[in-house]
Amino acid sequence: MGVGMNFEWLQAIEQEMQFDEIRIIGKRAGLEEKPCYIAALLRRGDQLQVCIFKQENMPAYGTRENTMRASLREQAHMMESLNLQALIIDGERLMGKSGTGYYLQNSGPEAAVLLARLMQAGWQMPQDSVFYHMDWDQIMIMVYGLDGTYPKIPDISQARMSVLWMAEYRNYLLEQPFCLVVTDGEEMETKQQVAFEIPAPDGTKQEGVCYINRVELVDVWQEWEEKYADPAYQKQALQYVSAEEFEETKRMLFETLGYECPRGMFYIGISYECTLDVSLDFYSREYLDSPQKICGQRASFLLTHSKPDRETGNHGLKMQAAVIRVPVPYDTKEIQAELFLARRTIPEREETLIEKGGSDGEISNGTAGTDDFK
After folding, report:
1. Phi and psi of 92, rounded to 5°?
2. Where does the pLDDT of residue 31 fall: very low under 50, low under 70, confident under 90, or very high at 90 and above?
3. Other beta carbons less than 10 A from residue 131's beta carbon
4. Which end of the chain is more exposed for a tag (fewer CB within 10 A), N or C?
5. 37-84 pLDDT, tens digit each
6. If you count DSSP H runs as helices and E runs as strands, how many of each does the chain have, helices first?
7. Pair 284, 324: CB distance under 8 Å
8. Distance CA 27, CA 53 (A)
9. CB–CB of 43/150 below 8 Å?
10. Are 301 and 325 in contact, with CB atoms under 8 Å apart?
11. Separation between Cα atoms, residue 306 and residue 270, nearest integer Å
């Protein structure tokens, strides 16, 4: 039996899903990789919300393998999120606020009650929509608040509408194994390279090549000891924290570092170029296949060695840097690694809403609003 599940709880959900007015939008955004359907505008009091359907696979809690590989796969998925920045109606930008998400499957009665409210307002999912035949464990309903106060929802039947999406990351799992040769910081005579494929924004396949220019051992102990000994760093830090807090932070950092990378051990730094405009994540295969542990990524904040020492590499491409955060001894010559993930930054973008069937109904406690946005 779920905690707190009783009729008082159910009635609270039913009250939460009461709206003074609903106007159906029933249009989709023109996204190819991430389908999105803008269902309706909702009003409670003088506050507006917009209801959006997104394709979002529900996490398979309790079924995944207990390895760091599985954990990182899930993290890559969770980092991807299509988030509303603004709904634009006839040029008027309604900025989005925080949103609440409901998976259609196994999310409790909230999603079912919300769907019922929309259907009471005359809405139906269009049969030609990609969501019509999609499994419900792949669908999330997001309800975003919108800035401003409105006593009525304006008539949107003839309005020009678009959505402004926030900038986001798009992650592509590669999990491509290769042998990484340590070069002691010297430029490689025989350049290492790894080819891979990811989807282009239009859905076609895009081939990329990662050229590895340099692989070196990173002494994170030396980096942080030099940083804390730097008078300029101390002066800057003491503008924000007391001397006692500064020392406590230092103590905790070195304690964590001792756990993650004992003194005398090293991380592996990689300088690389890529023919595609993506950043790449590398891991050792040993780490990926090790048992999952909560503390496995604690050292991510410890690293200062994350910037390349020059702007362009041997192929004239933008130089980038990555670190494999697995402690290795000083005499390490090679490591079994994986090019695990490619990450593309999708900039902020506006998309016009496209007609996609659906009815244009409304439900209201009074007369529906028809005034323009002021």
Report:
1. -85, 125
2. low
3. 20
4. N
5. 999 999 999 999 999 998 876 665 554 578 899 888 888 877 667 789
6. 7, 17
7. yes
8. 10
9. yes
10. no
11. 9
